[in-house]
Amino acid sequence: AQTVTQSQPEMSVQEAETVTLSCTYDTSESDYYLFWYKQPPSRQMILVIRQEAYKQQNATENRFSVNFQKAAKSFSLKISDSQLGDAAMYFCALSNFGNEKLTFGTGTRLTIIP
Amino acid sequence: NAGVTQTPKFRILKIGQSMTLQCAQDMNHNYMYWYRQDPGMGLKLIYYSVGAGITDKGEVPNGYNVSRSTTEDFPLRLELAAPSQTSVYFCASSGPGIGTNQPQHFGDGTRLSIL
Questions:
Q1: What separation in angstroms does the CA of A10 have from each of A77, A91, A111, B22?
Q2: Which residues, in sequence order, are CB contacts of A80 under 8 Å at separation 6+?
Q3: What's the angle, vertex CA B47, arms to CA A94 and CA B113, rounded to 5?
Q4: What is the CA radius of gyration of chain B?
Q5: Are strands B43-51 and B31-37 parallel, antiparallel or unpaired?
Q6: Burial level of A71, CB count in 10 A (0-12/13-18/19+)?
Q7: Which residues of A touch B50 (CB under 8 A)?
Q8: What distance in Å separates residue A56's CA from the closest CA in chain B?
Q9: How many Cβ pairs closer than 8 A exist between chain A and B?
Q10: How far is the CA of A60 from the CAs of A29, A65, A70, B29, in angstroms?
Q11: Would you give the distance in Å from CA A84 to the centre of its chain?
Q12: Cα B27 versus chain centre, distance
């Protein structure tokens, strides 16, 4: 069985600063996909970024980037130039190649300090 | 551009009552999913479907049933509501194609309370 662990229940960052959210995972598969989802107070689940395990290059989406360390089974999310709209719960998730089911971590609540 | 539509958004049930949570997607996705999210927790998979007529259990299927008669619709049925089923329920879909691990698109959720 695969697992996803987010060890930081809560994080806070000053507006315009950079913050990194941690995620570790465990899977017996060699091919898999990793995701970060954002859940603002509106409750909607929004995809932030996606990483294919076979790609060595870290995924980036504007102010969001990941640090993917396959050997360490680590997948952290870096948010640069934090904005008030980034305040949300952030969930790390994993799916094995060809198996669309997602396994989620327990989430990190990010607070942005004006 | 509707995406994934869930109804209702809120519902209160009495113990032992039954209800169906509706989910529809207009993106022609093969995969559809039902998750529940308990307070302070991540999402847990209840059931999923890889296409019309095909469903399978997820991590927490007990107390629920699903059907998938069309590509668009994936209703979730609670037969005998119990307090442990108080949660927020999310429907999601992904595709097109099979085995491509596309990102899942989520509905806005249904908050269900069992009293």
A1: 14, 12, 8, 33
A2: A18, A63, A64, A65
A3: 105
A4: 13
A5: antiparallel
A6: exposed
A7: 100
A8: 18
A9: 56
A10: 24, 4, 17, 26
A11: 18
A12: 16
Residue given tokens 């019309």 in the structure block = B52
Q: Is B48 on the interface with A (CB under 8 A)?
A: yes
pLDDT tens-place string over residues B6-59: 999 999 999 999 999 999 999 999 999 999 999 888 899 999 999 999 999 999
Could you tell me the CA-to-CA distances from B89 to A6, A66, B65, B96, B109 in Å, in that order? 22, 28, 14, 23, 5
Tell me the C-alpha distance between B32 and B49, whole Å.
5
**Contact predicate A34/A22, CB 8 Å:** no
Structure confidence by residue, pLDDT tens digits, A38-91: 999 988 899 999 999 998 899 999 999 999 999 999 999 999 999 999 999 999
Q: Which amino acid is at A57?
A: Q
Number of Cβ within 10 Å of residue A5's Cβ equals: 13
Q: Which of A42, A95, A104 sits opposite B42 (nearest CB)?
A: A104
